[in-house]
Amino acid sequence: MHAIRAFLATPAGRFVGIYSLVLSVSFLVLASKPVNDRIVNPYTTMVAHEARLVLNLFGEGATVSKQVLSSPRFSVAIFNGCNGLEAILVFVCGVVAFPAPWRRKLTGILLGFLAIQVFNVVRVVSLFYVGALRPQWFSVSHVFVWQSLVILFGVVLWLVWVHRYALADTRR
């Protein structure tokens, strides 16, 4: 127990402690039925509509019904877990936990949210085309490739934010 307290007294330990606490609370809140029904599901439907807009730029004739993205060639349901919120939470909690001025944190959260959102829409569109063109690759692409890439993108984005913005004053 002493080793844990000693670690938490260090800057790295404070970051890990704050990050773990904020991430845990965030996931609990996100998983609650009222938040899921009022925020997560509408957000997931919005992601489906964003992907529909992109697909229709390519002439797909895609439509959205609730959280199902369809065209004459393929249909896919977008569920919680496919909406990018986990990657956004990983990024946002890292920004919140990192010792930086709040102005930089807020800027990082806004820009990071937008970047992850765009990346996730690319993911959904890509998976749509994988499902339409190579359905046998859909499951592997969805579960192993893209889920990993979205989380990795959130972590790399956080590292970029830390080095370019959060620590900008320390390099001068």
Keyword list:
mainly alpha, 3 strands, about 170 residues
Shape: elongated
Helix content: over 70%
Q: What number is the mean pLDDT?
A: 93
Unreliable stretches covering 5 or more consecutive residues: none
Span from first to last CA? 39 Å
Explain the overall architecture.
- With 172 residues, the chain is mostly helical.
- The chain has one domain (2-171).
- The protein is 74% helix and 5% strand.
- It has six helices and three strands.
- It has helices at residues 2-8, 11-31, 33-57, 85-97, 102-133, 138-166; strands at 63-65, 68-70, 75-77.
- Strands 1-2-3 form a three-stranded antiparallel β-sheet, with helices on one face.
- Helix 2 (11-31) runs antiparallel to helix 4 (85-97) and helix 4 (85-97) packs parallel to helix 6 (138-166).
- The longest helix has 32 residues, at 102-133.
SSE map:
Layout: H1 2-8, H2 11-31, H3 33-57, E1 63-65, E2 68-70, E3 75-77, H4 85-97, H5 102-133, H6 138-166
Antiparallel strand pairs: 1-2, 2-3
Précis, in short:
By secondary structure, the chain is mainly α. The chain is built from 6 helices and 3 strands, in the order αααβββααα.
